[in-house]
Design a protein that fits this description.
five-stranded parallel sheet; 12 helices; alpha/beta; about 280 residues; Ribose 5-phosphate Isomerase B, Chain: A
Length: about 280
């Protein structure tokens, strides 16, 4: 992890303590200054510098320190893609990562003492974004929607879980493209008794859903070729995997974002089929 750090004149001393702590745990840190408390500086200049570097993804996260942290957070949050969290206590540190995917931490040297500030930094660095239900909320912070979103699936016996993932995916961009597993690939994935509906019927049903802009059938048990052909801005997956696991499993390039849609409890084609079989036995 690479960190960029800066402060105003009120945060120089705490910034130095944070730098020393980061060095002690092996985290690379770029210090943009200032380096002396003697000269008054404008917090906005340093907030914009750190925010721009984070916005450009030259580093993964940034840390800003001023007297209260308020000015730094206001300034940094003016930049698209920057989620600067003002944290004054240890309880907030993991939550602003889990719920808000914060990429800039703002601290107040007047408000929080050195020991607690270092605890906050440690917790913030080691806390992960919760993904799942938080993703669509984070995306609503970005005024610039991406052009193309991709998702895929069997989509055999449609249920509300399918509809929700399509709505979720469409909410992330302007154009939603859906890849549907061919009958042959479904049999490889699910067994010889699947799919229930053939590929052309499944394609027709997906194409009729208003959130879907385009759909096609692909004949593979993985999505590598389908994603490569579409070259989307975002790939959406549903399930219990993290975005890093999905990226590795499907060999998704780093320039394509991965978003995880939460599973909807008890909503699956398999559960539907089990209910049908149970009803048949009862009858």
């Amino acid at each position: 992890m690479n960190i960029v750090i800066a402060s105003d004149h009120n945060g120089v001393e705490l910034k130095e303590k944070i730098k020393s702590y980061l060095a002690s745990i092996g985290v690379s840190c770029v210090d943009l200054g200032p380096y002396s408390e003697d000269n008054k500086v404008d917090y906005t200049d340093y907030a914009f510098q750190v925010g721009t570097i984070v916005q450009n993804k030259d580093v993964s996260r940034g840390i800003l320190v001023c007297g209260t942290g308020v000015g730094m957070s206001i300034a940094a949050n003016r930049l698209v893609g920057v989620r600067a969290a003002l944290v004054h206590n240890i309880e907030t540190a993991p939550k602003c990562r889990e719920h808000n995917d914060s990429n800039v931490l703002c601290l107040g040297s007047w408000i929080t003492d050195e020991e607690e500030s270092l605890d906050i930094v440690s917790t913030w660095l080691t806390s992960e974004f919760g993904e799942r239900r938080h993703v669509k909320r984070i995306e609503k912070l970005n005024p610039n929607k991406v052009k193309t979103v991709f998702t895929n699936g069997v989509f055999d016996i449609l249920h509300t879980g399918h509809i929700e993932i399509l709505k979720f995916a469409k909410n992330l961009g302007d154009r939603l493209i859906v890849a549907i597993n061919s009958d042959q690939s479904v049999r490889k994935l699910k067994g010889d008794d699947r799919p229930i509906n053939d590929e052309n019927d499944r394609l027709t049903m997906i194409q009729s859903i208003r959130w879907v802009d385009e759909a096609f059938i692909f004949d593979s048990t993985d999505t590598v070729d389908a994603i490569s052909n579409v070259n989307p801005d975002i790939v959406v997956k549903g399930g219990e995997w993290t975005k890093d696991e999905v990226r590795e499993r499907d060999n998704i390039p780093e320039d394509i974002e991965v978003k995880i849609c939460p599973l909807f409890k008890n909503k699956s084609t398999t559960n539907t089929l089990k209910k049908i079989v149970s009803w048949q036995k009862k009858s």
